[in-house]
Amino acid sequence: NTRFIATFHKPPAILKERITETKYIRKLDAAICVGQNQVAFIKDWLGIDQVSYIPHGVNTEFFKPDPKVEKEHCILFVGQHLRDFELLNWVLPKFFAYDNSLKIKVVGIPFALEKVKEVENVIKLSNVGDEELKRLYQTSKVLFLPLVDGTACNSILEAMACGLPIVTNAIGGNDAYLEGTHSCFENDPELMFQAVVNLLEDKEKRKAKSIMLREKALEYDWKKVAKQIEEFHQSVHS
Fold first, then answer.
1. Which of 6, 110, 123, 228 has CA atoms 20 to 30 A from the CA of 73?
2. What distance in Å separates the CA atoms of residue 113 and residue 70, rounded to the nearest whole number?
3. What is the pLDDT of residues 51-72, one digit of tens each?
């Protein structure tokens, strides 16, 4: 009576490129997708009927806003996987032309940080622990995170949970995760640059966005997500 269920995290293009032999995974009884952009692909690619979109979770008890901290005049960029470094590098000079007192903090592994232009006021951070990362989310004004593809993005979920306003592109699974928060934009560098500037210049808009994103993140609390996973497993076994 054993049932085999897999969870897929990579976007369709990467799955198809990396998994060239599907003989055995076609025998799966069911699959969980962490991005809505995977569901139709997994059903068709593997011929599996029982496929469910269950969002990735986030620890909303750890990642949370801190109303006592003072915000730095700072934009935050976090991570390396499927990040659009080309777009980031294009927009960096524009940010400093707009305001040369603005800081941009880029968090990532050393190899990823090498992809970021050496520009004045860009602060590169590696070996960042959980507490320091949470503090960065809590003290920055905007998370600017353009992607080239994706499903679920931990950095976006953590920023949401901390109530950090987000500017990202409408790509991969972003639209579903950020639905109703007006945080996803067309994949246009100029448009995304202007979206960040609009947030930097409007404190009340940032406050409203912070509340909205925190509320949205609570939908992805791990306790709720774990329950959805358990219910799906039970439905496959019944």
1. 110
2. 27
3. 999 999 999 999 999 999 999 9
